[in-house]
Amino acid sequence: MEDLDTIVLRTALNWHQHGQSVILVTVARTWGSSPRPPGSLLAVNHRGETVGSISGGCIEDDLISRIKEEGVQAVCKDGLPVVQRYGISADQAHRFGLPCGGTIELVLEPVSELSQLDQLLSACERRRNVERRLDLRNGYTQLQASTRGGVPILDEHQLMTYFGPQVRLIVIGASDLSRFLCQFALSLGFEVIVCDPREEYRASWQLSGITVSAEMPDDLILQLKPDTRTAIIALSHDPKLDDLALIDALQSKAFYVGAIGSRRNSEQRRERLRTHFDISDDSLQALHGPAGIYIGSKTPAEIALSIMAQIVAVKNGIPESLATEVASGKLQHEDVQHIETFQCGI
């Protein structure tokens, strides 16, 4: 399953290639509370069909109505990009359902050959980070390699946006836990690859939309060269597989590296990696183990939810202090249970 940005761009390109008039809408800036963050995308064709979201429905309804009544050329002022602001007044905020005080600024871009959506999609598929500059005066776009991401930048003459490869999850081990984790990841727009060289584990393990590899985990990770849009999680419960994967994963650019296991097993794993494979303490600090945030999970589905929540939190830059890890969460919970037991015995 593709992420939402890719779906929007691919749909807009497909509509355009089939002769339909299309507007690509980008949330450029917001002030106060806003339903969708800067960078969110929406595509609307001349029939009012949409893909993506910029406000949860209220502003979309206004744009659809205008496009159907006036046409794409009129809304975009003779085929040129236009900046549109919603929510400046209290009346607009009430009319369009924006939170009190919220203002959202959009760039409406008529899709054409100048948009270079095919080149942009191709670059993202090759796992390239791209900076896209849209000239508001003539609709020309420039694409160039980027070493950073971030929110859009809008000035008087141009809109600069950043695009990158689809977020990828590499799962070591085909199991029931892996199956639930992959389902969560797919629903969140991750590209998912499951690696397990054990034929008996792969034999009955199938899930639409994912890639299953029979390679040794270390070989696969070296081949894929994990980038900053890649998460790696070891779930095989076999140290020969998990440790091999983690050795290379911890030395890659992956934004998340984790492994399943009890607190004791996690400490033993760290000691093995430190002693036998010379993994530095700094690298081991990046290992999330036991993987997941503490939600009192018991079943494979709950454990998968816990792990996926942690991966998303790390991806979104949430500090660990705001997302309690499994180990510290269990300790705190045990302390609370101990106190409650002690008090009941008084």
TrEMBL record:
Gene3D superfamilies per UniProt: NAD(P)-binding Rossmann-like Domain
Protein name per its UniProtKB record: XdhC family protein
Stretches assigned to the XdhC- CoxI domain: 15-69
Pfam families assigned to the protein according to its UniProt record, in alphabetical order: XdhC_C (PF13478), XdhC_CoxI (PF02625)
Listed InterPro entries: MoCofactor_Util/Proc, XdhC_CoxI, XdhC_Rossmann_dom
UniProt lineage: Bacteria, Pseudomonadati, Pseudomonadota, Betaproteobacteria, Burkholderiales
Domain XdhC Rossmann: 169-311
PANTHER family, per database record: ALDEHYDE OXIDOREDUCTASE MOLYBDENUM COFACTOR ASSEMBLY PROTEIN (PTHR30388), MOLYBDENUM COFACTOR INSERTION CHAPERONE PAOD (PTHR30388:SF4)
